[in-house]
Amino acid sequence: MSTTKSASPLLRTLLRPSSGPTSRYTCAPCLHQQHQQQQRTIHKTKDASIPKPTPFVPDVKTFLTLIGRGLSAQASKISSWNKLFTLSSEELKELGVEPARTRRYLLRWRQKFRNGEYGVGGDFKFVKDGAAQLRVVELPSNTTQGSEGSPEYVSVTRTPGKTKLVLNVPEDFDPLNIQKLLQPGQSTADLKKPKDYSLKRGHIIAGPYATPVAGGGSSTVRVQVKEGMWEDPLGKKVFGGERRRAQTLHKLGVAEHRKAIGTAR
């Protein structure tokens, strides 16, 4: 009897509902799966943003031409700028964009463009029919804040009180009308040289795909949209380790030599 009475409070304690919150155990694989789902949701939301076309990249055809890998031939399969930045890999596959590595390459460049990571000419503001003009312009030397050789400005002073800058200008640019290059609220101190271009010897514009303009010497150049200007180079084939690579290259060389001898005969 005493045992039953003494056990009753203990039994009531064990059967009493807990006042605290109910804890739930989640296994590690489930947590990993939840994390992946959250990451996919975040990436999907981020990827939904559609950047605006730029003067140098105004449409789908130009974008695909710049990034290369033969994607310009696929331009007819992507109907609009919005489609270019919203189609998934599966949807691109259904449209016939093959192989898979090409789709991955396109998606990678698409994300870089969203982030403002452009190739050559991506920061040009004055472009006509896929061509931009760069010119050496003299400005008052007190308009620039950077020093000579700084990454933002190219400063080579020849005329007293003047500084020479490489600028992207319209084709009908008048050197006496610098204000045409400025946005509302800007001053000449806000003018910067285009990325990847520099001034050599005070009058030569150096940079990729720069072609001198007739009559302008090397102080005026044109940059035209071309196939693969932004293309990421493919890796080189490696024939295994050092020993195997030497053996394979030797065999290839012997085969080429025999082929050359056979052709000569």
UniProtKB/TrEMBL annotation:
Signal peptide: none annotated. Residues 60-116 form the Small ribosomal subunit protein mS41 SAM domain. Keywords: Mitochondrion. It is found in: Mitochondrion. Residues 1-20 are annotated as: Disordered. Residues 1-19 have a biased composition (Low complexity). Transmembrane segments: none annotated. One of its GO terms (cellular component) is mitochondrion. It holds the Pfam family SAM_Ribosomal_mS41. The keyword Hydrolase does not apply. Belongs to the mitochondrion-specific ribosomal protein mS41 family. This is Small ribosomal subunit protein mS41. It comes from Lithohypha guttulata. The lineage of its organism: Eukaryota, Fungi, Dikarya, Ascomycota, Pezizomycotina. The gene is FYV4.
